[in-house]
Specification:
The protein is α+β, with helices and mostly antiparallel strands. It has four domains: 4-73 and 267-331, 3-Layer(aba) Sandwich (Rossmann fold), CATH 3.40.50; 80-189, Alpha Horseshoe (Serine Threonine Protein Phosphatase 5, Tetratricopeptide repeat), CATH 1.25.40; 194-259, Immunoglobulin-like; 372-522, no CATH class. 51% of the residues lie in helices and 17% in strands. It contains 16 helices and 15 strands. It has helices at 4-21, 39-52, 60-70, 80-98, 102-118, 120-123, 127-146, 150-163, 176-189, 259-264, 278-295, 372-394, 396-411, 417-449, 458-479, 496-531, and strands at residues 27-32, 194-201, 206-209, 212-216, 219-224, 227-234, 244-248, 252-258, 265-266, 272-274, 300-308, 311-318, 323-331, 539-545, 548-554. A six-stranded mixed β-sheet has the order 9-10-1-11-12-13, with helices on both faces. The chain has a four-stranded antiparallel β-sheet with strand order 4-3-6-7. α7 packs antiparallel against α8 (150-163) and α12 runs antiparallel to α14.
Length: 557
Amino acid sequence: MRLRVLLTVLSASFVPKAAAQTGDHWLIVATTTSDDSWLEPTESSVREELTDHGVGVWSRDNAVTRFEANGSAPASQVTEAAIREWFARSKAILESLVQGAPAKALDQLNEAGALSLSTIEELNREPERSQKVLDTCLYGVRALLETRSPSSAETQARECRKVVLHGEPSAHMHPPQVLEMLDRVDAARTRQTGALRVESKPSGCAVRVNGLMLGETPIEVRNLFPGRYAVQVECDLDRRGRVHSADVKAAPTDVFVDSRFDDAIMTRPVLLLHYASSLEEEQHRNADAVEIAKIVPTDIIMLLSAPDPTVVELELLGGTPPKREALARIRSARKHDLTTLPPVMLPCGDEPGAVSANTRPEDGWPAARTPRGQFISGLTLLGVGSASLLSGYVLIGPRARTAEDWVNALDAGGQESASLQQKWLNMGNGMIVTSSVGAAALVAAMPLALPKRAKTPWWAWLSGGLGVGFAAFSVAYGVTAEAKPNVSCTSLVNDATDARTCVKRGEQISVAVLTGMTAAPLLTIPLVYLFRPSDAHITPSVEVSRSGGYVGIRGEF
């Protein structure tokens, strides 16, 4: 059963409200203070069960990718073997240039560039490696100049200076024209208005841009070419800072780094908040989860934690500002064994928002979902009913044109008037049939498709008011319809005056029927909520006496 019982309670109690708040997927965020080996399989179990219950959930890969792209990513891990391979490729590029093969050198540069760009913050950490990165990039400038592509060479030189913001290339490794082009690019950079303003909490932390140490926070790095830069803030020089991507344009770009949050956040193997102690977890985890939700958009956060070695806790945060909507726990006889034993619901005491197997959400329905087959049937009926009712309205235009043709035919001498009259009658019957079928299907769909609520929602009352309005209009418009002509409109009509009377009366009757059919499903919506079994205990009553009578409804609305 895994987490099925637990998640049935949570999802059934919270899904209707969540669906009304946002269309976003739920976001699972794990929190821990110690060993996290249990997190990956447990998080997978939670995601699987939520999906089975029809809840949209951010996939692990999508959530991590989104956070690392728009928030921060772990520092690159580059092995010594990979660095040696990169140096070997750089040497091969130079050899190709010496041998007079610039095209081959460009191909080799593309291969080496893929590694250098993905790990630039690590390669540039040491001055010797940073100089080698600049040298290798400038080999591309030389190759492009030798293939007589000066504009492309200048673009390459600009990229080199974006990758390595400061520093000189190795002496005697580049021809004069390459060094002159680099000097022109450096001169152009002094006119650039792009800048990075980096602040941190606490301040006074080291700042690296693309791996190069540039100073301490707060700091403004000016004269930057437009592009994406990797920013790291390191308050502890023995630890690599997480990489924050900054898109620099013509105006200054601000980057703020909360060192404590950066230390807590992890994205591998799952989206995770890791704290040094339970006290720190209790103080910061909700606020940190909200910060994650700003980067991975969602209004519904599920916090997954283990407050005890034998207990897994699921807490739902929702709303603005986020607050606890539900809380549930599961205990296992073995540490986090969620597959061999059925889950056990534990009472959560007087904690606000606590949910257990015997409780009911404060403003929701009991922990039970509408059967999938029933829900699909309701949606099917909604689709069929809406299409049928709409078809009745669509027929108004063609029927009016047919009526006009019928009257014109009578005025012209009666040719084809009989067939046009029959066509007009058939279209009227079609309008009535399609609208009736549509209204019946929609009425039948409402109990199956409407979400459950403890009380009748405001929009159901609005629907009922519209239904009353449509019904009143239908009756009034039908009663005041044109009087019947001298002959029956269903028999052969040879007089144009009688035909016009039939047309006008038929149009009024058709509109009255359509609006009446539209009123039926609108009135059904509040009635479904009023008479559905619930804690409101809605009960109708009828009392009759000699002096009169009344019909009443008792309960909570």
